[in-house]
Every structure is written in C-alpha cells, then in structure tokens.
Amino acid sequence: MSGDQASAVFLAVETGGTKILGRLASATGEVLDEARWTTTTPKAACDVIVAFARGAAPAGSVLTGVGLAAFGPLVLDPGDPDCGRLLATTKPGWTHSNLRRELHARLGAPVRVDTDVNAAALAELKLGAGQGVPSLAYLTVGTGIGGGLATSAGVLQGAMHPEVGHLRLVRRPDDQLASVCRFHDDCAEGLAAGPALAARLSGEPMALRPEVQALTADYLAQLAVSLVLTWSPHRLVLGGGVGAAPGMLAAVRAAFGSALGGYGVGPAARESAFIVAPRLANAGLEGAMLMATTTRV
Hints:
alpha/beta, Nucleotidyltransferase, domain 5, 21% strand, ROK, ROK_cs, plasmid
C-alpha cells in the first residue's frame, strides 16, 4: 500500500428523519470512529458531521471520499449543479437544503450521494442477504415506504429515484381506514406504513390483532408483486420497523403467492428464500461507506 493509500480515510453518513449516523474508516476498512446524532436542522447536521470527520481523523490522514445515504426526495443527477438538493419533504426546514454540497465545500473531499434505500440495497447485495445473486430489491417499511434496486452494475436511477411507496394498491372493500398519505388515497405508504399500522392497532399489540397483520401483509405482498413485475429482482429484502415486526415476514411470504395470482414470473420469485430479512444491522450506513470508497472527483 502506498503512503497516500495508507493515509486515506473515508466518511460514511446516513441521514434519517429522526437520526443521523456517521462512520469514519481507514483504507483497509478499519472503523476509526462512529457517532449518532438527532436530526434537527440541515446546518446543525452539517456542523456535527464536519466536526466528527475532523475530530476522528488520525493526524496526517486525508479524507479521500464521503458517501451520503440520505432521505429524499433528492436530485441525484451528478451532472446537475443541484445534485443532492432535497425536494419538497415533510421534514421541517429541510426542503431545498443540500447537505452534499455543504459537506463538499467544508470538507474538500468528493461526496457521492444516493437515497438511504438505494444505499441499503447496494450494501445488502454486496455484503448481506444478496450475496450470490445478480440483483436485489430492498423494500423498507417504517414511518414511510421506500424501495431500491441494486445489480452488479450499480443501483437503479433515472430522472430521479424510485418512489415505490406511492404505488397504488387494490384496497380491500372492507378497509375503511383513511389513507395516512396526504397525496394518495390508496398508495402503499398510505395503507401499510408505520402510521397506518398504528392507526389500525389503536394502541393494541399486533399479536392481539391478527386481522391487522393479515391486511398489512396483503398490501405489502401486493407491493412486492409490483416490484417483481417491474424490476424482476433475484431476491427481495424486507426491512424497516414494520417489516421486522414479529410474524410480518412470514405473513408477507404467505400472501405473496396469492397476490401473484398464478402469473408466470420465473423461478427466482418462487424460491422459498426470495423474500428475506436484512442481514446487515445498518445497511444504509454500510452502503454509504461503499459509496465513499468509490467516489471520484
């Protein structure tokens, strides 16, 4: 390893609606330090990240790359001067902020940005549940719903990034809950994300409301089928707080076959291990580190 390589350090950052995670690592992958902060304002976030990067870096080291896995919606076109800018978001004070640009200006290192779910998909494909398969879809179900597709060629990006949480579902006729999405009456996020689940449970544990689990699993299975029909991944990871709820993975797997309706989708989606749980504890942060180590000026 050359001297320049030996002195290189890399910064990974994952921003979320409630928390921000940071990690500094050496060129050999050794974790030098990690931190967690509460999400407040863009300026406060930038300040603590910059202080962390400078304070944790060994003497004589050079920050060589930064990976930023961010909540969206985001401008992701690297050729756009506004790359990294947040579009209209429900997080107060963050609309039109650009943490990528500010970190680059203050740290002087190249910053590669992507959505947190794309970063998680990339990490699970290379380091986690997707090892050994050519493509992986990551579906996270928590306060909101997001999805990303990673292949050996990279992650799926178009004019923007996928917003699969707002795909429309077939609402059950007996489902009278008002959608929690202010944009759509029957999208996946409005019917099956954490706030919708909380409204359905009304404070009761899901173990006492099996019909709520079955309904939520049906909606998530519908969404999984939509991803299969559009992306055709070799594996689908179900993550997030709702996805990790006891019994939810098994319930979604059980509902998936019925949601397919017998349509031919090839052997991969019919494997018993097609829909799986994440293997990585912090897939978004792991993905950010993969991005950091592959940045280019």
